[in-house]
Amino acid sequence: MKFAIFGAGGIGGYLGARLADAGHDVSLVARGDHLAALQSDGLRVESVAGDTTVDLFATDDPDDVGPVDYVLFTVKAYDTRDAAAALDPLLGPETAVVSFQNGVDNEQWIADEVGRSHVVGGVAYIFSTIQSPGVVAHTGGPARFVYGELDGSRTDRIAALDDALTGCRGVDAVLADDVRQELWKKFAFICAQSGMTAATRKPLGDVRAAADSWAMYRRVIEEVVAVAGAEGAALPADTVDEWVEFAADLDDDVTSSLYYDLTHDKRLELDALNASVVRHAERVDVDVPMNEAITAVLRPWADDRAT
């Protein structure tokens, strides 16, 4: 199988290395210092599931790669439209573009550029990041990747992707019955985790210790679940309790990528997270005051770093 990893960061780099170790043909599309390190020293993954180093073709120009079977699309959500517009050299008639990103809008944004027939939905549950140029650190999480055709069909290409990912060490691969539901389910959690740790500028332990903040954390999840239902992606009845119980068991020092970006002067994915909840809620006439509050608190930061 031939793969291109578009955005070889924490998630893309991890998957690329695992697929290469399983014998697949993997190319990396990256940029900056990270690209330079990939080209000179290869990709190093330091993982709780086992370390590996792979020497893969890396470039910033998709024309250098050509058509592939799968594009694993793992850029930040604010780069989705621009990155999707650059995908054409990687696409053959049956190429699947598999989004493993934060949010519920990316698949549509990609489809707007390349056509819906190319797009596959995906959800990643993993704590991994670029530790230094050329080095990806996987520090925790189940390394669980959920994916599926947007219409729920079992195509040959999704079956082949499932076989490829299932055969990778350090990957818990799950072919979803309804990937849209899976996208909204994770979205409910990350909007609470990212929104509350970023808005308070505190790790989860401090959020839990403040009764008002912990109650708001739950309400953020409740609002997203309500919007999902109104959008036709009804989530299981125990989704809110499941995520609150999950968050209650996380380490005190856990934060989020949104918190990290806020505190490290980086661009924010706000418009793919809590602000997205607000947009969807307006369309389906659902009240989401907690997500509106988080969006309002973080908006000046997001706008200031948008360019």
UniProtKB/TrEMBL annotation:
GO terms for molecular function: 2-dehydropantoate 2-reductase activity. It comes from the Archaea. SUPFAM superfamilies: 6-phosphogluconate dehydrogenase C-terminal domain-like (SSF48179), NAD(P)-binding Rossmann-fold domains (SSF51735). Coiled coil: none annotated. It catalyses: (R)-pantoate + NADP(+) = 2-dehydropantoate + NADPH + H(+); (R)-pantoate + NAD(+) = 2-dehydropantoate + NADH + H(+). Residues 4-151 form the Ketopantoate reductase N-terminal domain. Residues 178-299 form the Ketopantoate reductase C-terminal domain. Pathway: Cofactor biosynthesis; coenzyme A biosynthesis. GO terms for cellular component: cytoplasm. Transmembrane segments: none annotated. Its EC number is 1.1.1.169. It is an enzyme of class 1 (oxidoreductase). GO terms for biological process: coenzyme A biosynthetic process; pantothenate biosynthetic process. Keywords: Coenzyme A biosynthesis, NADP, Oxidoreductase. Gene3D superfamilies: N-(1-d-carboxylethyl)-l-norvaline Dehydrogenase, domain 2, NAD(P)-binding Rossmann-like Domain. Belongs to the ketopantoate reductase family. Catalyzes the NAD(P)H-dependent reduction of ketopantoate into pantoic acid. This is 2-dehydropantoate 2-reductase.
